[in-house]
Amino acid sequence: MPSTLPLGDPAPADGVLPPQAAASAGERSFSLYAHIPFCAVRCGYCDFNTYTATELGGGASQANYAATASGEVSFAAGALDASGVPRRRLSTVFFGGGTPTLLPAEDLAAILASAVAEWGIEPGAEVTTEANPDSVTPQSLRTLADAGFTRVSFGMQSAVPHVLRVLDRTHTPSRVPEAVHWAREAGLDVSLDLIYGTPGETLDDWRTSLDAALACEPDHVSAYALIVEEGTKLAAQIRRGEVPDVDDDDHAEKYETADAVLGDAGFHWYEVSNWARGDASDRRFECRHNLAYWHGGDWWGVGPGAHSHVGGVRWWNVKHPTAYAGRLAQGASPAAGRETLDDATRRVEHVLLQIRLAEGLPTADIAPDGRAAVAGLIADGLVDGPAAVQGRLVLTLRGRLLADAVVRRLLP
């Protein structure tokens, strides 16, 4: 969730969506994303819509946040009803941030309970919270599990102290296995998030982080290349020459290393940046919430700056927590703007997202001009030839490294 919001069209105060949103809604999954915008410190690389406690007050305080977010849940249910969108049980719920676990576990449980009270929840639904390793305790994780959370995604990022310092992370490497152990004791599935390509990180450093992550025996690993966003502390440090810039070749080498190490450890890739425990036929530990995004499902995003999507209608909330709380207190939608996607835009987004998945993109979903590029993509080693013959475009390892280039050739 980048800190800069798009412009879009005005969003009505009542939150009612155009008729397109209701069409065929019963055929799509429905999820909830809850944005918790609080962090103990602002990490130097982070461009997300987050705030430290000293930056906020009044209705935007951490103490009041659960009630405010639950207020948007109630607003959402009413707006969807008024839009003619049938009520569907939640298939996934995801708490992201920020650091959701800076709030008391009881507050996260209260937000979840408000959503379940409005919509219900599918049996076996996935309910995830992100967490920093130093923002949980055995008791807080047990409280979350008792409330219906099934999964925790820890922001490990690295196991190397000097890399964590560059990233401004507050935990020590030793805290990660401890937090994972507590989560396991609570009965939660565990994902670990890693970042590669931090200035000053060597290939040996990266291998150390991968080995440390695997030693925790997680169910899922996400590995993201560090992207230096304008306006961040890290961007300023690079501009002043205090730390070296990131390097594309370094990113590629570290991605290939991650794929090999995780594959050897019994993980399969199912999306360019994500690996799950087990072989490709075992999909139990893939992140179902993110798959809902990638497959074009419906979701309502609660919280300041949160984005939502229902039936090709997309909108985003005002960024600042004070403005967000103020709108809800007045009974008005917190949306800052919205857009209704036309068929052409939806097709483009389908290609952009689906090509990143290991299941691949059906060739039939590509326009004729794009299909003409398939032979060249096979010849260049970017998509799997036998899979393409069977009607699906599946990225090779080289293709994953150049996924954006593949998309450009499929969407001339």
UniProtKB/TrEMBL annotation:
What UniProt keywords apply to this chain's record, in alphabetical order? 4Fe-4S, Chaperone, Cytoplasm, Heme, Iron, Iron-sulfur, Metal-binding, S-adenosyl-L-methionine
Extract the coiled-coil ranges from the record: none
GO CC term, one of those recorded = cytoplasm
Location in the cell reads: Cytoplasm
SMART domains in the record, alphabetically?
A: Elp3 (SM00729)
Which GO molecular function annotations are given, in alphabetical order? 4 iron, 4 sulfur cluster binding; coproporphyrinogen oxidase activity; metal ion binding
Q: Which residues form the signal peptide?
A: none
Radical SAM core domain residues are: 24-268
The record's section on Gene3D superfamilies has: Aldolase class I
Q: SUPFAM superfamilies, from UniProt?
A: Radical SAM enzymes
Matches recorded under PROSITE patterns? RADICAL_SAM
Which Gene Ontology BP terms does the record give? porphyrin-containing compound biosynthetic process
Q: Which InterPro entries match?
A: Aldolase_TIM (IPR013785), Coproporphyrinogen-III_oxidase (IPR034505), Elp3/MiaA/NifB-like_rSAM (IPR006638), HemW-like (IPR004559), rSAM (IPR007197), rSAM_sf (IPR058240)
PANTHER family found in the cross-reference section: COPROPORPHYRINIGEN III OXIDASE, RADICAL S-ADENOSYL METHIONINE DOMAIN-CONTAINING PROTEIN 1, MITOCHONDRIAL
**Member of which family?**
Belongs to the anaerobic coproporphyrinogen-III oxidase family. HemW subfamily.
What the protein does comes down to: Probably acts as a heme chaperone, transferring heme to an unknown acceptor. Binds one molecule of heme per monomer, possibly covalently. Binds 1 [4Fe-4S] cluster. The cluster is coordinated with 3 cysteines and an exchangeable S-adenosyl-L-methionine.
Q: What is this protein called?
A: Heme chaperone HemW
Q: What is the lineage of its organism?
A: Bacteria, Bacillati, Actinomycetota, Actinomycetes, Micrococcales
